[in-house]
C-alpha cells in the first residue's frame, strides 16, 4: 500500500498529478484490449506526452522493479497491451503530434500515439500515400502498428508496416534513448536494430518517434466486388489472378456469415445470396489499372462468379473497403464472444486451408465466420461463441490447436499480423523451434535484463539459473 | 448498492445487451468526449466496461461512475460507428438510472432541482407554460435589458451569469394559440396525422410548430394538434427517471391512440428518438406493450415523413435567396439514422443553395441539458461547430432540434455573427407562404 502510494506520488512528479490514473473506474477501463475474453487490472495508468516522460517513467520502473505495459489505443488482438498484475500502463494516446512531413525526401515523422488514419490523411494532404491500412486504422496508433508490424487490406502489393518504417526513436528498458535508422534509402551501418524493434510487441523498448516512408499517390484505382456460389471458386480466382502475374493492391474475401453481418451494419448493398465475396482493388497508372481490372473481371467470370460490381465513384469504393474493415466487429452481432485467429499459409495452400477450417468447425460443433486477406494467404477464422459457455470455449481452443497444426504443416505461420502476445504464446515454441527460441530469449535478456517490459508476453524467459 | 426491493437497472438488463461490446475500439474516434481527453474512461468502450462491471458486481456505482455517465453526451455517435450493434442508448439510460438510484450524487440542492424540473415542471406542461410566461414577462418588459445593464449580474456567480445569458427568447404565443386543434388538408386529404408540439419546442419554437402544421397541410395531411399535450418523457429517460418516463409514455399513448392516425409527427429530434422506443420502455406493461409497438411504428420525424410522402414543389421562392448549411442533430443522424431526408427538404426549397458542413454529425454540445451541467465540454464543442459553420460562409444554418437551434444561435450571437439559425421546415414553410404572395 505504502509502496503503491509512493509510486503514484513519484509518477505524478514526472507527468503531473492529473496524468496518473488510479481510481477503480480508470483501472477498469484499461483492463482489456481488443482481444476477447482476457482481463487484468493494472496497478496504475500513466498518460505520457514526451520522450522525457517515457524515459523517467522507465527509470522509475527500474528502480522499483515494477513491470510496464505500453499501450496505444488498445485494439490489439493478441493481448499485447493487456496489463499484467500491478503494472504501470504507459499510454501514448496523447503523444499524437505529427512532427514533420518532408515532401522532398518522402518521409513523415510522428509521435507514437498518432492514429494510422491521421498519418494517411497527412500524407494524402501533400499528394503522398501511406499504404498500410489495418482494419482498425481509424483508431489504432502508429506505435501499435510498428510494435505489431501490422498489415492491412493492401498488403499484397504494398507490404506491411515494416516496409514503411525508416527510423525509430526508442526508449530502452533502462531509460536510455536510442535512435535507429534515418532518412536515407540505403544504410548498412551495423545491425538493423530498427528491424528488431518492429514487431517487438512492446517487449524491447518504447517507441517515442516513428519516421515513415511515403510513396507517391497512385494516379488511378478501380474497385470491384465479385460474388461466388462456392468458396473454392473465390480461392481459385485469387490463385488465377496471381498466376496471371497481376498484383492487385487488395484481394479480400468474406464468407457467407460475414457478408450478412457486414451488410446488416454497413448497408452498402452487398449481395446476400452467395457463399463468398471477393473485394478486389487495383491501383497505379490509369491504363494499367483499366487493363488489370478487365483481366480480373474476366478471370472471376471464368471461375463462374455470380455477379460483378464495379465501384462507380471514389465514395462507393471507400464505402466498400470501410464495410470490409468492419467485418470482425460486425461478426459480434451474432455472438457475444468472437475469437478470431490469424493463421497464414502460402497462397497456393489457401483453398485447402479454408476447407480445413470448415471441417474443424463442423467437427467441434462451432459456428465460424471467416474473412481475411486472401491475397496474402492470411485467414481470420472467427469462432462465434459465448465466454460463459465453458464447454464451448474449450472446443474453440481445441479447434484452434488443429488449425495451427495444419497451418504449420502447410508451411504457414500461427500469426500473420496480430502478433503472439498472450493469445498465441503457447504455440510459439513449437512453431519457432529451439534455436530460434534461444536467440529470441537471449536478445530480450540483453535489452531488458530485469524483464520489466510486457513480462509474460510472447514467451517466458528460459527456466533455470540465469 | 441499490436499496433492497428495487432492482438495479443495469442488472435488470438482458445480459446480452451488457455483453454485446467486444471492445474493438472502433467507436472511439467518433466519441466527442474521448476525442477531447483521450482517456479510456471517457470513451464508449470504457463506459460500457464500467456498466458491465456494475452489472457483474465488480464495481459499486460510485460517484465517479455517476459523474462519468453524466459526462457522456448521450449523442449516440458511438452507436452509428459500432459494427457489433451495441445498443448504447439503452445502456446509457439504464446507467443514468443506476446512478440516480444509488444516490451517490444526491445533495439537497440537486434533489430539489431535479424534483422541480423533472417532476413539477415537465410533469405537467401547464406549469411549464406558466413559467414560460413569467420568463417572457421578464424579457418583454425590458426587465432583462434592465438587469443586464444594471450590473446586478456581475454580483452573481459566473455560472449563473452564463446561464442568464443563455435564457432563450420565449415566443409571444405558445403553439395552441397559433395552431387550431384541427387543420384541414389543402386539396385532397391524403393522410391524417397528429403533431406533437413538445415542451421546449412549444415555448421557444411555437413558430416551428406552426410551420410544421402548415407544411403538412400543404402536402395533403389533415393535422390534429391537441391544445394540451404531455411531455414525451425523453428528458426523464435521459436523466435516470425511467419510471416517470414510462408514465409519460402511457399518457402520451392515451392522448393520441396510434390506430387513429397514419403518422404521429415530431419536429424535435431528441423527442423523436425517444418516442420511437416506447415499446422497449413499456415491454413489461401488459396493458401497453402492444399499443406501444403500434405507437413506435407511427412516430415519424417531420423530415422522414415528408420524404416518405413526397414534397409538393413550392411555387414560391425564398427572398432573398439563401446559402444554407445543415447541422445534423445527434438524435436525428445517430438516434434515428435520418440523414438524407432533411437535405431533401432543404433542396426542395427554391432559392436555397445547400453547402455541406464539415463534421456535420459531430455534436454541438447542446445534448439535452448537457450545456447546463457540463458547460466546459459543451463550450468546446460549440466552438468547434461554429468554426466549421463559419468556414462554409453561409447566411443560414438549418438544424432539426430545439436544443441545437438554441445552442448554435447562442454560439453565433456570442461571436456577433449575423447567421440565421432555423429549422429546415421553416424554410420550406416560407417558400409555400410566398406562393400566396
Ligand atoms: C476491428 C479491428 C480490425 C483490425 N484489423 C487489423 C488488420 O487489418 N491488420 C492488422 O495487422 N491488425 C489489425 N487489428 C489489430 C490491431 O488493430 C493492430 O495490432 C494495431 O496495430 C494495434 O494498435 P494499437 O494502437 O491499438 O496498439 P495496442 O493494442 O495498444 O498495443 C499493441 C501492442 O503494441 C505495443 N505498443 C503500443 N505502442 C507502443 C509503443 N509506442 N512502443 C512500443 N510498443 C508499443 C503494446 O505494448 C502491445 O504489445 C485489428 C483490430 C481490430 C479491433
Ligand atoms: S461499442 Fe461497438 S465499436 Fe465500440 S468498442 Fe464496443 S463493440 Fe467496438
Ligand atoms: S453517447 Fe456520445 S459522448 Fe457518450 S459514449 Fe457515445 S459517442 Fe461518446
Annotate the secondary structure layout:
The complex is a heterodimer of chains A (466) and B (437).
Chain A: H1 2-15, E1 20-21, H2 24-29, E2 44-47, H3 51-64, E3 68-71, E4 88-91, E5 98-102, E6 107-110, H4 116-124, E7 128-129, H5 142-148, H6 155-158, E8 165-171, E9 177-181, H7 193-197, E10 206-213, E11 215-216, E12 220-228, H8 231-243, E13 250-255, H9 256-266, E14 276-284, H10 286-302, E15 307-310, H11 314-325, H12 327-331, E16 337-340, H13 350-363, E17 367-373, E18 378-385, H14 390-409, H15 428-447
Parallel strand pairs in A: 2-4, 3-4
Antiparallel strand pairs in A: 1-2, 5-6, 6-10, 7-11, 8-9, 8-10, 12-14, 12-15, 13-14, 13-17, 16-18, 17-18
Helix pairs in contact in A: 1-3, 8-10, 8-13, 9-11, 13-14
Chain B: H1 9-12, H2 15-19, H3 32-37, H4 44-55, H5 63-71, H6 77-81, H7 88-102, H8 108-121, H9 125-140, H10 143-150, H11 158-166, H12 175-178, E1 182-183, E2 191-195, H13 200-204, H14 206-218, E3 221-224, H15 234-238, H16 242-255, E4 263-266, H17 269-275, H18 278-281, H19 289-298, E5 299-301, H20 302-309, E6 322-326, H21 330-333, H22 340-347, E7 352-355, H23 370-373, H24 375-391, E8 396-398, H25 402-414, E9 420-422, H26 424-436
Helix pairs in contact in B: 5-7, 14-26, 20-22, 24-25
Flavin-adenine dinucleotide sits between chains A (33-34, 69-77, 80-81, 92, 112, 134-136, 140-141, 143-145, 147-148, 150-152, 201-202, 206-207, 328-329, 417-418, 454) and B (24-26).
